[in-house]
Amino acid sequence: MQTFELQAKARTADGTSKARAVRRNEMFPAVVYGHGMKPLSIEVPDKAFLKAIHTKAGANVLITLQVEGVKLKESTCRIKAIQNNPVTDKIDHIDFMVISLTEKITVKVPVALLHIEEAPGIKEGGSLDLVHREVEVECLPTQIPEKIEIETKAMKINDAVHAKDLILPQGIKCMLPPDEVVLAIHPPREEEVKPAEEGAAEPEVMEKGKKDKEGEEGAPAKAAPAGAKPAAAPAAGKPAAAPAKEGK
Question: For the chain, percent helix, then strand, then coil, each to nearest 5?
Fold first, then answer.
């Protein structure tokens, strides 16, 4: 595991305004604690720290911390937490934790997929489900792996890689449950088939009913009995006379 040396200064004043002043001087406000030591407020050069976390080890880089005017019982630290500004996303504060190189610690290690483009399940249109982008492991600080590689070129649809399937270096213990799924390839999503629109045939039925009704209305009137006089048409503008009542 790569180590990186940082020269720090003790910070006597705390508070938001003081922290802003530290950042304006191209330093990051920080605190170091652990192994029974009293928390110590410090400041570290921003450029040097950014360089440290951009090595292959990333946030798991081991820091050899030298604080000006202060002698630490243990100088090897790990980055416990990085607080970012919610607006600018720039680093606001760093927590360093003193560690012993002979005591095991738990850290999260990124997962790297090998040959995923060659996996039959992906070629057949399956969808990749990377459940854990990082895996928590337990090991000595000097054994922290840079990444955990997973070979995927033989994976088919419905195949999965569980925590117990991970190939880890000797001395590295995975902290996930053995049956926890780390990676899976799911079947392609089926396109939803839209059902036939209801009432598609309805206009035709309605049209047919309409024609039948129209045919009934337009059918010829029944023939009048023989000898009967045809009813006289009412004069224009005058209503037809009511029929005479029978028996009178």
Answer: 20, 35, 45
